[in-house]
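subagent[fold] <- orchestrator: predict structure for attached chain, return tokens only, no commentary.
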Amino acid sequence: MSFMQALFGGPSQGLIGLDISSSAVKLLELGRRGERYSVEAYAIEPLPPNLVVDRQIADPKQVGEAVARALKRAGTATRSAAVAVAGSSVITKLIPMPSGLKDNELEEQIKAEANQYIPYPIEEVNLDFQVLGVSAKDKTTVEVLLAACRKEQVESRMAALEVAGLKPTVVDIEAYALENACQFLRHQMPDGGKDKTVAVVDMGASNTSLLVLHDGRPVYTRDQAFGSKQLTEDIMRFYGMSYEEANKARRMGTLPENYQSEVLTHFVTDLVQQIDRSLQFFFAASSQHGKVDQLIFAGGCALIPGADAAIQERLHIPTVVARPFAQMAVAARARPQQLAQDEATLLIAAGLAWRAFDETA
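subagent[fold] -> orchestrator:
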């Protein structure tokens, strides 16, 4: 993989967005006619525990086999894919560079100067950059976003994709993929998000990402280690189940009658406290934004019945569950009814799949 292909990548017609989380592989392919998007294919394949730990792939072969099963279920012939690495594993720096340099000249200069920005030996990282535009402070320079990720993070994802017979075309950053997916949530935002402050909370199995938008632009991001895995562990302790038994019982709805009052209610309380804590960090960091006009809840935890209502009641913020595909056409092979149940969990995959149409890359 060349220097320029390491991160970000470029637009590619026919691209699968592939979100590899700690609990599942989530695959999504989008189409577009004019300005209207459509869902062409999707699949979710559960992963056994400990294959992906702390956002790192421990066994690329097994993860790749799961991706292959998802591909088969999705029924897509597309073989180019976009994946993402966790923001915590990526270093980003905004650096000034002389304007007027060609891409290859800019690349060589960044290579030569990267040591002063990256705290790792250059041979141990994948690097990429994106020119953001002319600096407001100095018209003779451009602002360049430099991104660096340890090679093992990228290479483990490449290896998993190759096991599944996929060509890795784009390696993105999860936070950027989430930001890109927010364009599919505008129909849920008051006034389409114009002049509004909207918090998007993506709460998965082991990680929660908060993205705050104002007037449609990101103003704050925060990740924390919390998710539905804690609920599974609570079920294990309370009922004496194994991890697999607890997960299956939660998915199938076969837990005892006292599950909601004895286990789920306590978890939802913790869930709301975690969101409130993240928002308090946001308010402390931003003197310009004293309230949130709406909260959009996404991820696996958004599928918990009543969780959105509990957030709204306790935080006094209007709350909705993410529906990114509500205004899209859905191909029959994408199983529209099942997709409607799962769509709140597919924001990262949607942001990655959108890279097929990213004309600015």
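orchestrator: received. Logging for downstream: The first strand starts at residue 16 and ends at 20. Residues 186-321 form a domain with the Nucleotidyltransferase; domain 5 fold (CATH 3.30.420.40).
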